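Hey all, sorry for the wall of text incoming. These are the three entities for the joint prediction.
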Amino acid sequence: MTTDKATGPTRGNRVPGVDWSRIALNVVLPVAGVVFALLLGAGMLLILKANPLAAYASLVRGAVGSRFGLTQTLVKATPLLLVGLGICIAFRANVINIGGEGQIIAGALMSTWFPLFFHTWPGWLLIPATMIVGFIAGAFWGFIPGILKARLNVNEILSTIMLNAIALQLMNLLLQGPLMDPAGVAAHTFLAQSAQLPQAVWLPRLVPRTLLHAGAIVAVVLAVVVYVFLWRTTIGYDIRAVGLNPDAARYSGINVPTFQALSLTLAGGFAGLAGVVEVIGVQHRLLEGLTSGYGFTGIVAALMGSLHPIGLIPASILFGGLLVGADTMQRAAQVPSSLVDALLGLVVLFVSGSALWSRRWASKRRTAEQMDQEGTA
Amino acid sequence: MKSVFSVAVVTGILNTMMGLATPFLYAALGETIAQTSGVVNLGVDGIMLFSAFAAFYATLTTGSLWLGLLAAALVGLLMGLLMSFVSVTLKAEQGVSGIGLYMFGLGMSSLLLKILIGTVKTVVGFPPVPIPLLSDIPVLGPVLFRNSILVYGAFLCVPLVWWLLERTTLGLKIKSVGQNPAAADSLGISVDGIRYVSVCAGAVLAGIAGASLSISLLDLFQDNLTAGQGFIAVALVYFGAWSPVGVLGGALLFSAVNSFQLWVQVLGVKIPASVAVMLPYVLTIAALTVTVNRMRQPAALNKPFERGES
Amino acid sequence: MKGKRFLVAGILMVLLAVGAFAAPFRIAVVMPSATNDMAFSQSMWSALITIQKEMGGESALVLKYSDNMYKVPDAGAAVRDYASQGFDIVIAHGSQYGSSIQEIAPDFPQVTFAWGTDVNTFGLPNVYAYTAAAEQGGYVNGVLAAKLTKSKKIGVTGPVEVGDAKTYIDGFVQGVQSVNPTISISKTWTGSFSDVALMAAAAKTHITNGADVLTGSSQSVVGSIGAAKDAGGVLWFGTQADQASLAPKLVVASQVYDWVGMLKDIIAKHKKGVLGGVSYTLTLENGGLKVAFNPGYKLPASVKAAADAAIKGIASGKIVVQP
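and here's what came out:
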């Protein structure tokens, strides 16, 4: 009799959690999905009298064809990666976190107020402190639906959708009042933005004359941390157990609601961190529209990364590149941006559809692993 | 100085509530059917937008409101087929496919507005139809019984959807497919087929929700007309615990509080506008914390079905 | 032969001059909403189209746009892209684009950047800033509204209390109060710039409360106008763009942002080599702000006179409207 939980995560591989053949499929198939969607998009472009080949060429050029484009891709990939990491953790516990928008706002609000309040602190202290409190703020915004689900059985999709709207109004409230830029008040422009944050808290730029900031490195490091957390710690193990088989997990003594709440809290923290890096890395202030829909696109990136923290790194770069390239395509072909949005929607639809094979493959592997487990028991 | 609880204000709140609740009702009831069969469709907002445009454009060009309604239902059906194909046949991760559908609907509706119409125009939408006798009831009569056909239709859908799910064989199949697809499959029910039907039914209702906005309540189409109402509708399904009556309660609660907070602002009560706007969202969560969730969610919700999988 | 060389040189010079003439002027604009939003973005886009027509069409002025750029880093990328393509003028039409302009402008010293609505040119030689004194048109609308309301109740349906939505409405209130301080003005804020249904519900609420004149700001006010139409007999005052087409019998007047004069000035300055450094404000005085009276609405002569007096007063500086 082994002390391993019989239907727990795999132990068979050399590197736990890394399945190379599955990775190959998960790279090939999302790309195939993208291609199919782009074909449909070419049709739409032709109808609008734009040249699809030229348009797509500009898409690629925009994403990776220039120094600025490449850095812009990485700038977009950073919040995608951070939100995606949180989604990853939540998904592993079988919880879908669509509260990303609100959690990003929570992190952004905290990372605006904190450096403005502690503006005398030196950078080496202010930056990490801001990131930590921003993470905590986002985690709090994920904790609320988590605890409501665990204790009061309030469905988390309901509470997160509501909390997204509440966070937005909270940001409006603060931007109209205490957080409004005093310069804007004095000039009677009343712009919906905060004062510029003290330079000490600005994340250093990695490439001059671009927006690429150190947050990108932090995000990659955190991806590795999350991987270690999920596969090398008991808490991570329990989270994954809850996701793979909640009943079995319950029987082996894991408190499922608690771990689901925990995963939502952590997911909120990472989304909050995305808000932090957008504020202190890109904008250097808080302004409306800051979330840029990352709360939703992060979910897409997470899926494209097969819900694996390491897989998320190339996936967020790919998806970030797609977003950046799409904008470049809009400029070059002068098609309405709504065409680009529709195209991206098709891409997401068909990328999510190509998960068919990986899911089937995953279930076959899971059965094989389970048989493995019983064999070694 | 009117108090917020005077008769005139209360009837005003109820009146506005009816209009606000209408799109939520159609969309949420439709989503209830889809989710009862086990499919989550987060793309409802996109369907509403695309259908709203279709209804508006059809009415604008043909002058017929009924053709507009038909166009909305048709576009809803097509979007439903697309969603079914990706989520049921291709077994996609439903949360993500829904987001893609939303982006697609949002983009297409704005794009078509730009290239087919160009600017914001208005149409004459479905007029208010007073129900004889009932609309003469003092106080409540004008509020409840002097609305457009689409508003009445939304409320009519509550018993209709209930009857569909609880009293028909199709409803039984939908529920069994959502609760235990493997068992349903072994009984010869086509799991995928029933899910297609449910998702499409839900999408058609979402389409009508869109039409209710563009050719009945607002009589125009503009970019992002729904401003996220489709997502609220999905949330209301969870609020109502997959029961049409529960969904009605949620839609009414949310719309009534929204109506109420507007009155609070109009009457000059000294609370910040942002706090007032938050009220419907906060109270919806609060309401769920104090009510007991009697129905459990369909066991196979959000899980694509694979014969041979447990 | 000398003569032949001169002839060739002469022909070349003429060709060069013609070439210089023939090379079109290029303007790119980045904006946060759609070009057909009946509000902020539309006002700039229609001004650019007007100028293009006046200059002789696409061969004289090339216009490129990126709309729905509400995601600020993407807007920044768009601005940078257009600048690097060698556009003469890049317009960043949104107050959230300020920090992007501040970062990008120094990298492209040959390009003129114009952004608004704000007054800050960051001390950079190639940045123009522009804003609209929305409170001025608001004041005039307020005077008209105060004179036309029979119920003495006016409703304001606003989105979020920031920017020119706030300044317009503050000016409106001052205008109303200058005529009759006892008129009751109710304000609602929907918390969103795009929620048409909620805006319509807000307008309905004002109307049920007895308001017979409404005003408001943002693209979602099409909902308020619709509610006014449904109620019948409720008048509307608009801002940012001429909204008369939406309710030809009810829209009394709209404050229109006319960017044409300012844009012509910027183009002329750019051609002369002055690439920035000026902060423009649209006012009633310089014609950047216009009050467009709806010809479909019959305005009593005395009321029109009061409005004209207000316009004159503001333009001359006698009336000061506080934003």
